[in-house]
Amino acid sequence: MDYFKSISNQLLTKLGAQKEQIEGIQQAIKDSGFDGSKNVSFAAVRQKLKERDLSDQEIEMLFSKYDLDQNRELDEQELRAMFADLEGKKNEIEKEMAENENKRPESSRSVHRYGGGGGPDMSKLTKRVDRMEYTLSVISSKIDSVLGGKVLLAAKPDDVKTRLDEEDLDN
């Protein structure tokens, strides 16, 4: 059961990171000068995405996917297509996270999700806290599994000594 719980937590952590990366890409493009009516150059987008720790290869792949006329500049139509695609991916991730959240036991769900308003800052903070909970849960389960193995070894020292002696005789 702990195995499935840890796998679920790892999946949710990865999904949260992907969603955050998509939001970062969207914000970087907005920061690079896109206001809905003008073109954005590759250099401006690249600089903003580099600040968000994307590799050159990831930036090049993203840009080439949407730069249909290959002029190293994203025009309004290309940017709208990019934003629509990114928003669709973000919605898919949110849906998958919600499905996985509903599968989790009530005791491990975040209480913050059911609270009142608080604005976008509270929402962002809540998401980060939830991701930290997932990560800590994964770490905790790994520690439990490691300590569980050591407890078994400590519980039966004669068996361990016998096995070690047999291994020495085999070599």
TrEMBL record:
Signal peptide: none annotated. Residues 54-89 form the EF-hand domain. One of its GO terms (molecular function) is calcium ion binding. SMART domains: EFh. Residues 91-109 have a biased composition (Basic and acidic residues). Residues 91-126 are annotated as: Disordered. Keywords: Calcium. PROSITE patterns: EF_HAND_1, EF_HAND_2. InterPro entries: EF-hand-dom_pair, EF_Hand_1_Ca_BS, EF_hand_dom. Gene3D superfamilies: EF-hand. The keyword Calcium applies. This is EF-hand domain-containing protein. It comes from Oppiella nova.
